[in-house]
Amino acid sequence: MPFHREPLRIMSSGQVHWVVAVSKKTFQKMIKGKKYCRRPYEIRLKDDKEKLKVFTGEKIKDHVYTSADEYYRCNGSSLILNQTSENLCNIRNGSIDVILTDPPYYDNLIYSDLSAFFYVWIKDRISFGHDDITDKSIFVASDKDKGPEQYVQQLTRVFRECYQKLKDNGIVVFSYHHNKVEAWISLARSIKDSGFVVTNVLPIRSEGNSAYHSSERSIKWDSIIVLRKKETTVPGADICSSDEMLRFCIQELKMKKSDVISFFRSLKLKEYVNHGLNAFHENDPGQFFDTYNKDIINAFENYNSINE
């Protein structure tokens, strides 16, 4: 159904994405999306097996604004801004219900290098007007003098902007995963320094079953992290012990070891943001985030021995 409140989709600072080639499948997906907008439907299950389309009788149609001033003047409902998320001064404070975002994954992908490859060819036909647009991406890369501290500073500015723009009862939702504990520490610091609290963390499958991205260390499960301006009791959150959660991840969700370690670090992120570090871990936050690593390794060894 159409979403009549105001969601905000945040992109990372300095990211520029260009469509180079569009495959046949991509066009088919675009056409399918257009058809859906003309006849939206909900999916219902019949006898827990057969999927039925229930058409809502609505249409999804809107005018998209690219100027915040015009958007507010015309009382619009769709606004697209191609700008840094570190400064959202053209969006009114306390006006956003939901922020859906996908923050940069530390050192996993250097967006500026991807963007710069195409930017040099098309910069004369777009309106940025300066060549350093791709240098402001948020990532960690030692060969580019982009260290963890700069990553934390930039990401903190983005989260602080989100905090200002969000309504008091609004939420921020984003996905994250990483093999390096340093990435989780940096993310946690940014969230904590912005004033948010973490009210829920959920696992979700983000990669398919293909051989691509299927090495033992590759992560196929993301953590969905929910932020609010103040701590709120979330029904269903924190209702099971760490042992029960570990058993569920391994036996029910069939996660790999790297998936489980990443997810349990997200649970420690929630603890860090909401309650901070205890005196024992103040000088070694990595040990705090890896509290469950030995239990995870032992659980996998026991599970493998039973199933051999």
Write up what this structure looks like.
- By secondary structure, this protein is an alpha/beta fold.
- Helix content is 37%, strand content 18%.
- The protein contains 9 helices and 9 strands.
- The protein has a 5-stranded mixed beta sheet with strand order 1-6-7-9-8.
- The N and C termini lie far apart (48 Å).
Task: Name the descriptors.
single chain; 308 residues; alpha/beta; two-stranded antiparallel ribbon; 9 helices; 18% strand; globular; disordered N terminus
**Span from first to last CA?**
48 Å
User: What structural class is derived from the secondary structure elements?
Assistant: alpha/beta
Helical residues, percent: 25-40%
- How much beta, percentage-wise? 15-25%
Globally, the shape reads globular
The largest beta-sheet arranges its strands as 1-6-7-9-8
Encode the helix/strand succession as letters: EHEEEHEEHHEHEEHHHH
Largest sheet: 5 strands, mixed
Computed CA radius of gyration, to the nearest angstrom: 22 Å
**Average predicted confidence as pLDDT:** 80
Number of helices: 9
Count of distinct strands? 9
Low-pLDDT ranges: 1-7, 9-22
Task: Chart the SSEs and their pairings.
Blueprint: E1 7-10, H1 24-38, E2 41-46, E3 50-55, E4 64-65, H2 68-73, E5 78-79, E6 96-101, H3 111-122, H4 148-165, E7 166-176, H5 181-194, E8 197-205, E9 221-228, H6 242-252, H7 257-275, H8 285-289, H9 293-306
Parallel strand pairs: 1-6, 4-5, 6-7
Antiparallel strand pairs: 2-3, 7-9, 8-9
Helix pairs in contact: 4-5, 5-7, 6-9, 7-9
